[in-house]
Amino acid sequence: MTTTMTHTPGTTTGTSGTTRAVTAAPYVVKDPDDHSDTTVLVLGGTGKTGRRLVPLLKDHGARVRAASRRGPVRFDWDDPNTWEPALDGADAVYLVDAQDRPGQWDAEASIRAFAGLAVDRGVRRMVLLQARVTEQVGGKSLIAGERGVRECGAEWTVLRPNWFFQNFDEGVFLDCVLAGELPLPAGDGLEPFVDADDVAAVAAAALLEDGHAGRTYELSGPRALTFGQVIDTIAHATGRDVRYHPVTHQEYVDELLCYDVAADYALFLADLAAQIRDSKNAEPTDDVRRVLGREPRDFDDFVKDAVARGVWDL
To answer: What pTM was estimated for this model as a whole?
Structure first.
């Protein structure tokens, strides 16, 4: 809902000394819950957080351009010719980078260039998804893109989530869970896994609401768990024999190489797991609660829902 109000007519004296009437100028007081005049470009629109974010934005009335490498709105970090068409009409952008893949990619330069183009095209707000990993992994910095967004001139918010629950029911660990064993060089380290739905909800708030500019949110679940506890929870809920098998860093790299995973990406994944082994980001945060006004979803609730959906049935 919007309310149109009118300034009181009056007169003004010009530089020549003549007096002219001032026409009443309407202005609009906008309902803060009305986002019908906001267009959001969502990069990675088919990814874990992007495909959850798109319906949330639409539910709040925003217009959404869900971009991907093969979708109707095409966006490819490796093809700058796709950047400007994707930005057409966008007021806000959800940025997901391209670090989680084999090969080297200059995240800082690419994100800085895109953010600058976005501001030139009229974007006034950006939310950047990074990771709650501040050390280099596999020779990459997973927060390399932050400076380019912070310095672009738009309002910015950075999201740094812990590992997603959804790695176990739709992501990289699903096949291992179905096979009955998850080998990983994470030892007995702790990780406060987070629900991708909570991350998407925080992203929606940062894109559509005021009060989040200039903030970095570290997004976690309510409690830290070991991989052993995670797998035991899944095994108990499914009634299946599923085990976590701790392996060494090099054993994991060698196993991935046997499956023709690129050497640099195998090291990247092993280094990521080592962050959990060393409990680098094991402390739960209250950022989900501070943004959403509720507690983050617990892993047990996620598992119950996944079991109900049959995702781990053989």
So the answer is: 0.88
- Are 52 and 27 within 8 A, CB to CB? no
HSE value, Cβ hemisphere, 13 Å, CA-based, for 99: 26
Give the separation between CA 311 and CA 314, rounded to whole angstroms.
Answer: 9
For every residue of 205-224, DSSP letters joined together read HHHHSSS-TTEEEEE--SS-
Q: How far apart are CA 305 and CA 312, in angstroms?
A: 11
The DSSP code for 165 is G
Q: Which residue has the tokens 């400076």?
A: 147
CA–CA distance, 279 with 170 (Å, rounded to integer): 24
CATH number for the domain whose boundaries are 32-309: 3.40.50.720
For 21-43, the pLDDT digits (tens) are: 444 444 444 566 789 899 999 99
* pLDDT tens-digit readout, 43-81: 999 999 999 999 999 999 999 999 999 999 999 999 999
For the chain, which residues make up each domain, given as ranges? 32-309
- Phi, psi (rounded to 5 degrees) for 89: 80, 0
- Asked if 227 and 186 touch (Cβ cutoff 8 Å), the reply is yes
Q: How many residues does the chain have?
A: 314
Residue 97, number of CB atoms within 10 A of its CB:
23
For residue 238, give the nearest of 168, 164, 296, 186 by alpha carbon: 168
| Mean pLDDT taken over the chain | 91
Rounded Cα–Cα distance for residues 274 and 279 (Å): 8
Amino acid at 217: Y
